[in-house]
Design brief:
Rossmann fold, 300 residues, two-stranded antiparallel sheet, 2 domains
Length: 300
C-alpha cells in the first residue's frame, strides 16, 4: 500500500479528535518508530509503498489513537530533557513543565557550586526524588549534575521496575527505594540516617474537582495514583514531604516541588509553617505557578 494513502486515512480518522498538525506529528513518529522512515523520505518519494506486514503496526496504532491512547504508550517511550525513557501505563508521561523543574534545579545547583570555596567532588551532592515514577527527574539530575549521588523513592513496584530500566539504559546510577512517603515506614529505612543536600518531588496534586480540565488521553490512560488527591486534602503529599525534608535535609539544603497551579500561595504558607526560607515560586512557560524552591535554614 502507498504510504501517502495510509497517511490520508490517519487524517480522515483522527483530525477531528487531535487536529491536523498533531495527527501529522503522530504519523511521523510512527513511521520512524516502526519503519525507520523519516518525514523527508516520504516528501522526496510520495509513491513510497510498504508491505502488508509493515502496514500492520501502523493500523494497530491508528486503532489505539482513535481511543485517545497516548502516543507515548503506543510506542513505549518518550523523550525527556534530552533522554530517551520507557513509559507505560504504570507511569505518568513526563511533561514539559517537569523538564522546566529539572532545568531550574540544574541551574540552581550550578550556581551554588560556582559560589563554593571547594569543588563539589570533595562533598558530592546527595539528591532524593520522591515519587519518581518513570525515573525522569532522578535520571536527568544524575546525568547532568556532576558527581551527584541520587536516590529515588516510589510506592509502585511496577513503576520502579521501569525506572530501573531507564536508569540503566541511560547509563546512570540511581539508588531506588520502594516506599510510601505517606506512611511511617519510611523512617525505618536507612534514609532515617541519610542527609540530603537536595530533595525534589512532583507528587500527585490534581484535585478531583479539576478532572473536568483533564483531557481523555490523560484521564483514561495515565495512572490515577500518580495524578489525583482528595479535594479536601490537596497538599497531603507536600505536607508529608516537607516534614521529611525538615528532618532529612542538610543545613542550607534545598527543597524543590512541582505544584498545582492553583495552590501556589497555599504552598508558600505550608513551607513557611515548616520553617523553610528563601521560598521562590516560579511560573512555567504557560504562565502558571508551577515550581517552588525553598531552603532549610537553622533557627537562630
Amino acid at each position: 500500500m502507498i504510504l501517502k494513502e495510509i497517511q490520508h486515512i490517519f487524517h480522515k480518522e483522527l483530525d477531528a479528535i487531535f487536529g491536523e498538525d498533531e495527527v501529522a506529528s503522530f504519523f511521523d513518529i510512527l513511521l520512524e518508530q516502526y519503519l525507520d522512515i523519516r518525514r523527508i523520505d516520504l516528501i522526496l518519494n510520495p509513491n513510497l509503498t510498504i508491505t502488508k506486514s509493515e502496514e500492520q503496526p501502523l493500523f494497530e496504532a491508528l486503532s489505539r489513537l482513535k481511543m485517545e491512547e497516548p502516543i507515548q504508550y503506543i510506542i513505549g517511550e518518550t523523550e525527556f530533557y534530552g533522554l530517551k525513557l520507557k513509559v507505560n501505563e504504570n507511569t505518568l508521561i513526563p511533561r514539559p513543565e517537569t523538564e522546566e523543574l529539572v532545568d531550574f534545579i540544574i541551574k540552581s545547583v550550578a550556581s551554588s557550586i560556582s559560589l563554593q570555596a571547594q569543588p563539589r567532588s570533595n562533598n558530592p551532592l546527595t539528591v532524593l526524588d520522591i515519587g519518581t515514577g518513570s525515573g525522569c527527574i532522578a535520571i536527568a539530575l544524575a546525568k547532568n549534575i556532576p558527581d551527584a549521588k541520587v536516590y529515588a523513592m516510589e510506592v509502585s513496584e511496577n513503576a520502579l521496575k521501569l525506572a530501573r530500566e531507564n536508569a540503566e539504559s541511560n547509563g546512570v546510577e540511581v539508588t531506588f527505594i520502594h516506599q510510601d512517603i505517606l506512611t511511617a515506614r519510611h523512617a525505618e529505612l536507612f534514609l532515617a540516617s541519610q542527609k540530603f543536600g537536595l530533595i525534589v518531588s512532583n507528587p500527585p496534586y490534581v484535585r478531583h474537582l479539576e478532572k473536568v480540565e483533564i483531557k481523555n488521553n490523560v484521564l483514561n490512560y495515565e495512572p490515577h495514583l500518580a495524578l489525583f488527591v482528595e479535594d479536601n486534602t490537596p497538599l497531603v503529599f507536600y505536607r508529608a514531604i516537607a516534614q521529611f525534608a525538615v528532618e532529612n535535609l542538610t543545613e542550607n539544603g534545598q527543597l524543590f516541588f512541582e505544584i498545582n497551579q492553583y495552590l501556589g500561595e497555599e504552598m508558600i504558607r505550608l513551607l513557611e509553617g515548616f520553617g523553610f526560607q528563601e521560598i521562590e515560586l516560579r511560573k512555567d512557560l504557560f504562565g502558571n505557578d508551577r515550581m517552588l524552591k525553598a531552603t532549610k535554614k537553622s533557627i537562630e
